[in-house]
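Tokens for chain A. Residues wanted.
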């Protein structure tokens, strides 16, 4: 990978990802070929935090139907990044505060 912006595609916004934020864990969709070391470097450089651990997993496709046509959603790679205690990623912190109001 050549750029940190090509490694992290988007943050994952779900109830489960918001619950993990209280433990200092943040969830991202990442590039399919990105190794854990590159994901950790990208998060550290983008958000200015210290990454302790990166867990990755493949999200399997789900069956979907639109009228009479069946198909599947895409397969994508998800990373759960654990940051050092006392640190937080501001992008998520703002969304979490808005969700609690």
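Reply:
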């Amino acid at each position: 990978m050549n750029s940190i912006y090509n490694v992290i595609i988007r943050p994952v916004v779900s109830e489960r990802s918001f619950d993990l934020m209280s433990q200092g864990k943040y969830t991202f969709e990442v590039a399919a070929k990105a190794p854990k070391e590159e994901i950790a470097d990208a998060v550290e450089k983008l958000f200015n935090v210290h990454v302790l651990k990166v867990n990755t997993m493949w999200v399997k496709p789900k069956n979907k139907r639109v009228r009479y046509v069946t198909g599947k959603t895409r397969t994508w790679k998800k990373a759960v990044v654990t940051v050092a205690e006392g640190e937080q990623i501001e992008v998520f912190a703002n969304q979490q505060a808005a969700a609690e109001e």
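The chain has one domain: 4-100. DSSP finds four helices and six strands in the chain.
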